[in-house]
Amino acid sequence: MPIPPRYQIIYNWDGAPHGYSPAPQSRDDFLAKAYAPLKDTQVGALFWSTGGQGSRWPSEVVEFIGQERDRPYASAAAYNSTENILQMYDRGEDPQKALIARGRELGLDVYASVRMNDNHFGGAQVGDLGALYKAHRVEQLRFEHPEWVLGERTSEWFALSWNMAVPQIRQRRFNHVEEICRRYDWDGVELDWQRHAFHFPDDEGYRLRYLLTDLQRAIRRMTEALGKERGRPVYLAARVAGSLEMCRRIGYDIPVWIDERLVGILIP
Q: In the predicted model, what is the mean pLDDT of the chain?
């Protein structure tokens, strides 16, 4: 497995610069706002969040943000952050490609940061899925398959998190990560397992840890194969819990990940 550079500082951006300008935001304005905190610093790599439930580009795996059902918006902030993305594509521009190219000009490595099980539902329960779907706050798959979320089997706040014991959910997550890696020329990809760290029913994480290891292994093999195709490495990072005990409880088998070299950068 290729060894990543020793970055002095890694800067993780959640994609917020898309909302820092009133629509329509120009590509140059987007790039200026995205890289303003990084210029003339010790930052060596930008980890750019690819989104939560949806995708910031036309995806074949998950819903394209803002286009699920006729672009409804609950606020001016939501309008600007989403329309600035969509209108770039309407103009034939691709913000991800521009972001990566600008990072290279600045001497920075640029990684895609993927939230593996993002939950921004404010403690909503399975019974709320219908209302959330009508309000455009959950994607169609979660609405159609409530049996694939954790429900009452975990902390109340994370009831709508995906149950990673479901094979279809793990396959969908792999497909999404592969699409992200193959669509753009990132220097690497970060699997943000901590957004959010509720993947299995309570007290089942350690017993089912092999399932997350299998997914981590499959992604590692994919990035290695892609690196060989491109003639340069695609580095793999992972963000996990801050202690080995908590990692075990959640379902991260860190000793195996290290022994099998399933991760190049481990971020507790």
A: 95
